[in-house]
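Aim 2, interim progress. The first record below pairs a target sequence with its C-alpha cells.
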Amino acid sequence: MLQACMVVEKAQPADLAELVELEARCFNSDRLSRRQFKHHIGFEHSLLLTARLAGELVGYGLLWLHQGTRLARLYSLAVSQEHQGKGIARQLMAELESQAAQLGWLYMRLEVARRNTAAIALYKKLGYRVFGEYHNYYEDHDDALRMQKCIRKRTEQVTLQVAPWYQQTTEFTCGPASLMMAMASIDPGCMGDQSLELEIWREATTIFMTSGHGGCHPFGLALAAERRGFATEVVVNTAQPLFIDGVRNEQKKQVMTLVHEQFKQECEYRDIPIQCTSLKLEQVEQWLSEGSSVLALISTYRLNGKKAPHWVLITGIDALCLYVNDPDVEEDQEAIDCQQVPIAREDFEKMATFGASKLSALVVVHESF
C-alpha cells in the first residue's frame, strides 16, 4: 500500500528529464526516447500521466488514443523498482481508464510480455482478458499477450468473428487484402499471400481512381470471391457508375464507366445479387450472426485526415460499436492497432460514405450454398 499521498496528473514539459531518467532505470530495451516523450506530452491523441510520491516521479502511464476509433492503447507503463508493490501501477491504470472513458473512448488494449507474470496477473485483476498473442514481439524476442478491456459499462458481450488479419502490401490493394481476410474467416485454408492479393486486384480494379492506381470496385470484389467458390452479394446506394465524382479527366470517366458496366453485366450473368439501398447496420448484424463476412467501403478522413476510399472487413457489432480489421498500417501504428478496432456506431455511419455523392458500398461473402 502507498505510504504517502500519490499525485497523478498529466505530464508537462518540465517532467521530460525525469521521465527519460525513469525510463532508463525501468527498461533495458524498447525504451521511449526523449523525443518520443516530448511528442506525447503535447500530442492531442496521447494521454501521458505521471505519478509522484512526495514530489518524486515514481511512475508514468502512456495511452495512445486512436483517431477515428474508440480504442485506447496502453503504449507504456513504468514504475520505479524501489516503489513497486505499493499499488502505483494499479492507480495509474485506473486513472488512465477513467480519463480515456471521459474523453469518449470505449476500449483499452495492451500488450504484455508472456514471461511478465506479475503484470499479467495485475491486468487480469483489473478486468483485462487475453484475446491474442504476438510471437517474437519485443527486441529481446519475447512473445507478447494481447489483452483488452471495455472501460465503459455495457450490458452485453460482443460476439467477434474469428478472422485472420492480413496487411496490404501496396497502397492500392486494401480491397483484395480485406477480401482475403473475409474468405479466410469462412474457410481458413484459403488465406493467400501477395500473389493472391495482386491477382484479385487485377480482377477487381476500377483501372483509374481519383489519383494513383485504381482501387477495387465492389462488383469486381464480389466477382473475385465468387470465382473462388464463395456466394456473394453487393449493397450499394446508387445505380450510377462509382468513384467518378472526383475524376476530372473525361477519358478516365469513360473508362471507369465502361468498367462499371462490364462488372455489372457479369454480376447479372453470374446471378450475384446487387441491392441498391443504403447501409443498414441491422442487416450487417444479421449477416455476421449467420457466419457471413462483410467488407465495407469507408472514407479514411476520420482515421488519418485523408479523403480516400478504403476497404475494411467488419468483424463484429454490438450496441455501441462495430469492429473492423483494417489492412492498412500507418507509419505511427503497429499491427495490433488495426485488428478488431472498435468504432462507435454513429462514427462508422459517418465514415461509411465516400465523396460528394455519399457513396456507401458493402460486399457480403457467404459460404457457398
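The second target in this work package is listed in the same format:
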Amino acid sequence: MKVLGKKTAPYRYLMPTLILMTIFMVIPICMVIGYSFMDKAVVSKNPAFVGLDNYKELLSNSDYWSSVSNTIIFVVVSVVAHLLLGMLFAMLLNSKYFSIRTKTIARVIYILPWVFTASVVAILWKLMLQPSGIVNYILSIFPGVSRNTEWLSNRSIALAVICFINIWCGYPFYMISILAGLQGISGDLYESAAIDGATDSKRFIYITIPQLMPILISIAMLDFIWTLQSFNVIWMLTGGGPVNSTQTLSVYIYKLTFQKVNYSMAATTATVLLLVCVIIAIFYVKQQKKVRK
C-alpha cells in the first residue's frame, strides 16, 4: 500500500488542477465543437444535427473570408514588426555604448506599453486619435497635412492603425525575451570572431541569430497564437468597423454570438480558429522539446 501510495502521490497532487481544467476548459471546448454540428444550438431545446453543413455555409460566407483576410494581415504584420522592434531595442539595451543609468531609464520607458491593460490602451489611443486629438495636432504642424483625419473611422487606414497600436502594445515582450537571450550569449564567441576578422554584420548573422533562434521561434509562435485571438483592443477601438474593415475572426465570433445570436455558426468559426491554434501549439511544443535536448 505504501508503494502504491508513493506512485499515486503525484496524481493526487495534480487532481484538483486537472478537475478544474476539465470543468472550465475541456468540457466547454467539447460543447462548442458539438454545437458546430448542430442547427440553432443553445437557442433551441432540440437542436437538429446537421453534420458539416455549418462548415460548408461558413466557407461560402463573404464576411468570414473578409475576417480571415483582416486576421492574416493583422497577425503577420504584428508578429513581424514585434520581432524587428524587439530585436532593435534589445540590441540597443545590450549595447556597450550606453551607460547603465541610460539603459535603466530606457528599459522603463520601453516596457511601459506592455504594462497597460487593454482598456487603458484603447482609451488612451482613442483620445489621441480623435480629430481634435494630439496626433492630428502634431501632424498639423507639417505643411499639407490635414488636422481632421479620422484615424479610426476611415476604412482605408483603420486596419493599419489597429496594427500599429497592437505593435506598440506587444513589442516589449520580444524585447525582454531577446535581451535575456543576448545576455546569455558568451562573449568569447564574439571575441574569437573579431580576432578572425569578422565584421559586426557577420557576427550578428553567424553568431547572434543562430544563438537566439530557439528563443525567436518560441516567442514568435506564442505571439502568433495571442495575436490570432486578440479581441479587447480591436473591439474597444473600432468594434470591427468601419464597414467590417477591422473585423478579425475573434470579433466576427463575438458578433455572431451576442449580436446575431447564431451560436451554431459562432461555434463553427471558433472550432476552425481552435484548430489553427492547436496546430501552432503542436509546433511550439516540438520546438520546446528540441531546445531542452
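The mean pLDDT is 87. This observation will shape the mutagenesis plan for the next reporting period.
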